[in-house]
Amino acid sequence: MIDVYVAFVLDLLIGDPRWLPHPVVWIGKLSGWLETVLRRLFRAPAREAAKADATVLAKREKWAGVLLAALVVGASGGAVLGLLWLAGHIHPWLAVFANIWLISTTIAVRGLAEAGNGIRRALAAGELERARQLAGWIVSRDTRQLPEPEVVRAAVESVAENIVDAVVAPLFYAMLGGAPLAMVYRAANTLDSMVGYKNDRYLHFGWASARLDDLLNWIPARITGLLVVAAAWILRHSAAGAWRTIRRDAAKHPSPNSGIPESGVAGALGIRLGGRNIYHGRESFRAYMGEPLHELAPIHIRQTIRILYVSAGLMLAAGGIVWWMLAAAGAAYPVGR
């Protein structure tokens, strides 16, 4: 458990410096290579493809995607286990340091806050074009023509959603199983960001990766909902609004998990998220979450980042309390007594 706290502090101090190799980069390269290989292996022969039913072709793609998820997630967890085993044979402290570093690479509190603050500072300086560009780096929608309130919305939605993906979920799995389990989660989450799209290319091939990410985020997302409500109360935002909006609007989101932190933040700050987005030239409408009590402004990015930090602190505190209670219970009722 101490390793998780140290890893969190390490992320706050240095984030993800470019000069350090990052496991997510390797996961991405492995995924890209395997996608090419698996699509070739599961592709129907030309003669069969011309005659095959669309359902048959879709099943081929789904099975290829299932194998992709299994191989990438399994290889990621296995590689970390092997690395820690090897480090432990060299020196026990080397295994401890490796575990801390690997856990820190699955957390992205500093990187997420820096991304949001970069957009906020650009807007404060009147650099709308720069803010649009920065927003385009963290969201998949087209940001090139967005007015200022919509740039703010993109930033707030991204930071809020990633309270789960970049903070609570990796901490949750690191607390349960150290770096190996945290890396399994990060691999699944990375796969979802690469192939979990409902478009012509990935609708079937990315199905398994998207469902696995949904499954792994199910518990952390609901923990995050409680943390956001508590953070809203601590920061003197509307905790009641956060709770009410989660209950009313979270299920409107196409993701079974992302709507929880987004609606919680919307209710806490008295803003409305969701609306019209453009993806690759196609318009999509995301259901509204929250009530527009305040017009979206750069200050809401700062407030969302504060909710991020407080939620992270509360997650660490809750994990520490649970760990202490389990340790106390184990001391009071040791196995074999």
Describe the overall structure:
By secondary structure, the chain is mainly alpha-helical. The protein has one domain (2-330). The protein is 74% helix and 4% strand. The chain has helices spanning 2-14, 23-42, 46-51, 54-90, 92-106, 109-124, 128-138, 148-195, 207-234, 239-249, 259-269, 298-332; strands at residues 273-279, 282-289. A hairpin with a 2-residue loop joins strand 1 (273-279) and strand 2 (282-289). Helix 10 (239-249) packs across helix 11 (259-269). The radius of gyration is 21 Å and the shape is globular. It starts with a helix and ends in a 5-residue tail after the last helix.
Number of helices: 12
Number of domains: 1
For the record, give the distance between the C-alpha atoms at the N and C termini, rounded to a whole number. Answer: 26 Å
Strand content: under 5%
**SS-based class:** mainly alpha
The major pleated sheet works out as: 2 strands, antiparallel
Roughly what percent helix? over 70%
- Give the overall silhouette: globular
* Mean of pLDDT: 92
Tell me the total number of β-strands: 2
Instruction: Please give the order of strands in the largest beta sheet.
Output: 1-2
Low-confidence stretches: none
Order of helices and strands: HHHHHHHHHHHEEH
The value of Rg in angstroms is: 21 Å
